[in-house]
Amino acid sequence: MRVWVLGSGSAGNAVLVESGGTRILIDAGFPVRELAKRLSAIGVSGESIEGAIVTHEHDDHVRGVCAAAKKWKWAVYASAGTIAGYPLLKEICARPFVAGATLELGDLSVRTVRTPHDGTEPVAVVASSRATGARAGIIYDLGHVPASYRRVFERLDILVLESNHDEGMLRAGPYPPSVQSRIGGAYGHLSNRRAGAFARDCVHGGLAQLVLAHLSERCNDPEIALRSMRDAIAPTSFRGAMSAARQSEVCGPFTAGRNTRAVIAASQLSLEL
Ligand SMILES: [Zn+2]
Ligand SMILES: [Zn+2]
Questions:
Q1: Which residues pair with 159 in a beta bridge?
Q2: How far apart, in whole angstroms, are the C-alpha atoms of residue 92 and residue 76?
Q3: Ligand 1 centre and the CA of 267: distance in Å?
Q4: Domains, the chain, with CATH or none
Q5: pTM (2 decimals)?
Q6: Per-residue pLDDT tens for 171-200?
Q7: How far is the centre of ligand 1, averaged over its atoms, from the C-alpha of 132 (Å)?
Q8: CA dist 21 → 14, 70, 97, 131, 250 (Å)
């Protein structure tokens, strides 16, 4: 299994998951021209992607999906609430599911799980390879971590996890109090501290890749997020690689398996633990 974060942050999110000849996209929050550019940077054609799962209706996750679906004939899947919240998805005949459903897409079995976020019916996903059993969790846009997540996201090989903001930088930052409350609230975005607490619970010796995602450009910094995570999981058995995904460039591939290492772009911040 290979995973690329095509970009992540409040200006757009898209994650490519590939396994056994199946390619799917989790979110397509970039304009189609930008998506094409980022896919071509890693030698992937839009036509080779079977479909996209949209996690929720916020623009930074859904922006390019309708045009891309028309252009490249993708099947698009979204929760019924997400389709209701973004009517264009209905026009392209997006296939509805209920948060919690498992979608079977070629070699990939994708379990969806409801996230606490201010969308209508937002989800995170666990994508499992039928051929190898490799598992990738992709979790962003959530204000807190429900207790049930420890079980849902256990035994992952790859974890892409929101580490949105430093709590001190959010308090001291440029946002008015109402926006600060939304971002830091229980249905907003996950802080570095909360991401670290969750990772401490769910990382294990077999986790090969931990990728921090959806970093705020105003209230976070890749080095601060990585440092915070490294400190949080220091007591665990984690022996994999840790990276911070970027808004402006593709990161990956992150490869599952005990004897593999990610090929990490030279420009990408990375800490080997
Ligand atoms: Zn978002
Ligand atoms: Zn959102």
A1: 137, 210
A2: 8
A3: 23
A4: 2-260 (3.60.15.10)
A5: 0.94
A6: 999 999 999 999 999 999 999 999 999 999
A7: 30
A8: 19, 22, 24, 10, 20
Rg value, the chain, Cα: 17
* DSSP letter string, 119-130: SSS-EEEEEEET
- The angle formed by the CA atoms of residues 145, 146 and 149, to the nearest 5 degrees, is 90
What single letter denotes the amino acid at residue 83? I
Ligand 1 centroid distance, CA of 10 (Å): 5
CA–centroid distance, residue 242 to ligand 2 (Å): 24
Instruction: State the distance from the centre of ligand 1 to the C-alpha of 164, rounded, in angstroms.
Output: 9
Counting ligands in written order, the one closest to the CA of 188 is 2
- Token pair of 23 as six digits: 């390619």
CA 129 to CA 21: how far, in whole Å? Answer: 11
List, in sequence order, the alpha helices (H) in 42-110. Answer: 59-62, 65-72, 80-85, 88-91
Ligand closest to 214 (CA) is: 1
| Tens digits of residue pLDDT in 56-107 | 999 999 999 999 999 999 999 999 999 999 999 999 999 999 999 999 999 9
Which two structure tokens, joined as six digits, stand for 73? 């004939």
Ligand nearest to the CA of 162: 1
Tell how far the Cα of 214 is from the centroid of ligand 1, in angstroms. 7
- Which residue do the tokens 């599952």 mark? 256
Q: What separation in Å is there between the alpha carbon of 269 and the centre of ligand 2?
A: 25
Single-letter amino acid code for the residue at 4: W
